[in-house]
Specification:
2 domains, seven-stranded mixed β-sheet, 34% helix, globular, binds flavin-adenine dinucleotide
Length: 410
């Protein structure tokens, strides 16, 4: 029988950070990741100041700085007169060491965390290994059954199993955890356009005819997301790529010269956007964190941050009981109690953005129901020094800052 102390299901941002922190603190941890590497079609690439500060505390700042990256200090939206860009969050104005968002391919960040964790004698990661079901004994989760990509199966027993396996988590099949879904008005198209000298920098948004766009400056190209009304992917594709690109460049006029840059719809990937959370993130022997506990909308681009902060809080609350060999319900409950308010607040703000900005725009109406209101909001954001700092701070650190367990700090 195979045994570990903490079995982490899923090697995304939440799983890799939790694995590293626990292993450094002397807890035997095994991460199961169903893919053979960390490369995916889509993964958010934003590393926010809270995660940068964490990497610093873990002694990884210098190695992280060597990864290829772009630094983004502002978030701009077209809320000004004639849709001119207005800076809605100036992270660069925060008086902190890490006053920028680092745009780093997520696989590089995950590889860095995995390499660092592999140095720890208590850590192991099994790639190409998918957890297929939970082992349950007398009502307590005691580990998982797994299957490897070459068809081998097995059982891994653990004092605690932590589900970090994203929004399709195995744990979501457990009815007692209760999934609460929120309506989401949009799906996202994801594609690249070349970037030229003289283009704006940073994160840039645009509003078009029944779609919204957010573009990430990645040096020589723009990673573009276009939000479209949910369920309209095939209808919109049938209307033709040329029509979409004409609409897109009309919304972002400085991209006009790249109207014919996409050759086929194959270059445009559909991402299903969801917003939900579990009512209970735990049961005896099991804890869910990150997207497994709460799938985040791409609005504000802070899902990775929340997942990482969940992992940091979980490590802090669980190191002692895991070292002692017994994790009670009160220990896993404490993690949910700590992280629930931030999650609920962030999702509430995302729902407001869905209802006030995204839904009206996707239905062809002005954001906030009235263009003058959007104008007043943008004036407030640009003229009030303090109001401008609130979104910047929230994007940078979320609602609460989490500190790693002292034993994990280097
Ligand atoms: C369109 C869109 C755009 C987004 N953009 C951003 C952005 O720019 N910035 C941002 O911060 N957030 C963004 N997000 C949100 C962000 O992607 C998630 O919140 C974040 O990835 C959650 O991290 P996680 O570790 O909890 O889960 P995930 O990143 O989903 O990782 C889960 C891991 O578990 C593995 N896994 C799954 N099932 C199993 C299994 N049974 N056994 C073993 N392994 C398994 C998966 O392969 C994966 O590696 C976006 C979301 C969407 C939908």
């Amino acid at each position: 029988m195979e045994r570990t102390t903490c079995c982490v299901v899923g090697g995304g941002p939440a799983g890799m950070v939790l694995g590293l922190l626990l292993a450094r603190a002397g807890v035997k941890v095994t991460v199961l990741e169903k893919h053979g590497d960390f490369l995916r079609d889509f993964r958010g690439d934003t590393v926010h100041p809270s995660t940068l500060a964490l990497l610093d505390e873990l002694g990884l700042a210098a190695r992280f700085a060597r990864l290829p990256q772009r630094r983004v200090t502002t978030v701009q939206l077209p809320l000004g007169p004639d849709r001119s860009l207005v800076t809605v969050a100036d992270i660069g104005a925060l008086r902190d060491t890490y006053n920028y968002i680092a745009m780093v391919p997520q696989r590089d960040l995950l590889n860095l965390l995995a390499d660092e964790a592999r140095r720890e004698p208590f850590f192991s990661v099994r790639m190409s290994t998918e957890a297929t079901s939970f082992l349950v004994e007398r009502g307590r989760v005691t580990g998982v059954r797994y299957r490897t990509s070459d068809g081998r199966t097995g059982e891994l027993r653990a004092t605690l199993t932590v589900a970090c396996d994203g929004r399709g988590s195995l744990a979501r099949s457990l009815p007692e955890l209760g999934l609460r879904r929120f309506t989401c008005p949009m799906d996202a198209w994801w594609f690249r356009l070349p970037r030229r000298e003289g283009d704006p920098r940073g994160l840039v948004g645009g509003v078009g005819d029944r779609f919204l766009t957010a573009m990430i400056d990645r040096g020589d190209y723009w990673q573009c997301a276009a939000l479209i009304p949910k369920g309209t992917d095939s209808r919109r594709r049938a209307a033709g790529l040329e029509r979409f690109m004409a609409d897109f460049t009309a919304a972002v006029p400085w991209l006009e010269d790249r109207e014919h840059a996409l050759r086929s719809w194959d270059e445009v990937k559909l991402l299903d956007v969801r917003l939900d959370r579990l009512r209970r993130w735990h049961r005896p022997g099991l804890l869910c964190i990150g997207d497994a506990a709460h799938a985040m909308s791409p609005v504000f681009g802070i899902g990775i941050n929340l997942a990482v902060e969940d992992a940091v809080a979980a490590a802090r609350y669980l190191v002692q009981p895991l070292r002692g060999g017994a994790v009670g319900l009160q220990d896993v409950r404490a993690v949910q109690r700590r992280r629930w308010p931030t999650t609920a607040l962030t999702q509430a703000l995302q729902r407001i953005a869905h209802a006030r900005v995204i839904e009206p725009v996707l239905a062809g109406r002005p954001p906030f129901g009235d263009p003058r209101r959007a104008q007043r909001m943008s004036e407030l954001l640009t003229t009030s020094r303090w109001l401008n700092r609130v979104p910047a701070y929230f994007l940078a650190y979320g609602a609460v800052r989490e500190r790693p367990p002292t034993a994990s700090v280097r």
